[in-house]
Design goal:
- By secondary structure, the chain is α+β, with helices and mostly antiparallel strands.
- Among the domains are: 109 residues, no CATH class; 89 residues, Transcription Regulator spoIIAA.
- The protein is 31% helix and 24% strand.
- Helix 9 runs antiparallel to helix 10.
- It is globular, with a radius of gyration of 23 Å.
């Protein structure tokens, strides 16, 4: 599987030191306890603890005078440094936090183009790619393509839900648009992917079709934003693949594969796969699957339509058998007759929120 570090985007400028922000001092004992190493990039979060703003790193609360310059929920990247004075965490300017008192404009500080910044700070919104690849929405776009092989390309990118296999999912990831530039650089002629497909649709769209142009442009921006998200995760030794699987005979499925930071001394990390789709017969569905290092799985399914949970419960025995054929063991399956709770990403860090609703 190709990694986000292999995407040939325009070079992302390296983080620069935050102006006027002091480093956080860390004792050798604390550094050893939370596994800090020289030149390592780590991420902390600002939390409100009893009215005082604290820096929390790897579930360890640290005193940092400059915490007051941020707000609860801000996430800050640090570079671990050693000197004759001991260990320190040197803050670097990341994409998820803006320093309220910084005197240098963010674009000048980053040295990045407005286009890159618009993708970095793209607001959270419903998936435009997901909306665009609904069968009833995509069909008119495909029909307007002038190229003779338009339908053939569409057939390569859009499959049938009835023919879904692990190979189809793998192919869907590789054709998601996340790796198009890398494949073009390596192979000269890349395989078709969703971003190329959308760009061809955009070129064939009449200038007076403002709504269609806006939808296609928004979908392309979303894919490129996901590419940058993958690169940011890779910088922190994490992994994040966010893409859409389109179908001719069903609504698309949004897929997010993520993995926390992996180090040589900590290979036993969990992989998380989040799926979301909406069907006429089952309603809206969310599935979170956690893959443990010992090939054990834990699943949580949310369904907002009455009766969908009963159908899932009936099929659970067959699901366990199919997973066993792949060497996987389903150890826990939780079925919830409700919509998946929506939690602000800024509140999903260590020590923030525990959802106890059933």
């Amino acid at each position: 599987m190709l990694g986000p570090e292999q995407i040939n985007l325009s070079p992302r400028p390296p983080p620069v030191p935050m102006e006027g922000i002091a480093a956080a001092r860390v004792s050798e004992q604390v550094a050893k306890a939370i596994g800090l190493r020289d030149n390592q990039i780590v991420r902390g979060i600002i939390e409100d603890r009893g009215g005082l703003l604290k820096l929390v790193l790897n579930n360890r609360e640290l005193d940092w005078d400059d915490s007051r310059r941020f707000k609860p929920g801000d996430r800050i990247d640090f570079r671990v440094e050693s000197s004759i004075y001991g260990r320190s965490l040197r803050p670097i300017l990341g994409a998820e936090v803006k320093v309220a008192s910084a005197s240098i404009p963010v674009p000048a500080a980053l040295g990045a183009s407005p286009r890159l910044l618009s993708l970095l700070y793209r607001p959270v919104m419903p998936s435009m790619v997901n909306q665009l690849f609904r069968p009833q929405t995509m069909a008119p776009f495909v029909d307007q393509l002038a190229a003779a092989n338009a339908r053939q390309i569409a057939d390569q990118l859009i499959t049938s839900m009835q023919r879904i296999t692990p190979d189809v999912v793998r192919s869907g990831l590789l054709s998601s648009g996340l790796f198009g530039e890398y494949m073009l650089m390596q192979q000269g002629a890349s395989r078709p992917d969703l971003k190329q497909f959308l760009r061809n649709l955009l070129k064939s769209t009449a200038p007076n079709q403002a709504r269609a142009i806006a939808e296609l442009t928004g979908a392309i921006d979303e894919i490129e934003s996901r590419q940058i998200e993958g690169l940011q995760a890779q910088q922190n030794r994490e992994l994040s693949y966010h893409f859409v699987l389109p179908f001719f005979d069903a609504n698309p499925v949004s897929v997010h594969i993520e993995r926390e930071a992996m180090y040589a001394d900590n290979a036993d990390v969990d992989w998380v796969i989040n799926l979301h789709t909406e069907t006429d017969s089952l309603g809206e569905l969310w599935l979170k699957t956690t893959l443990k290092a010992n090939s054990q799985l834990e699943m949580i399914l949310w369904a907002d339509q009455p009766g969908s949970v009963d159908i899932a419960r009936t099929a659970s025995a067959d699901l366990k058998g199919r997973l066993r054929d792949f060497g996987l063991e389903l150890t826990k399956l939780t079925l919830l007759d409700a919509r998946r709770p929506s939690i602000d990403s800024a509140l999903s860090g260590p020590g923030q929120v525990v959802d106890v609703r059933t």
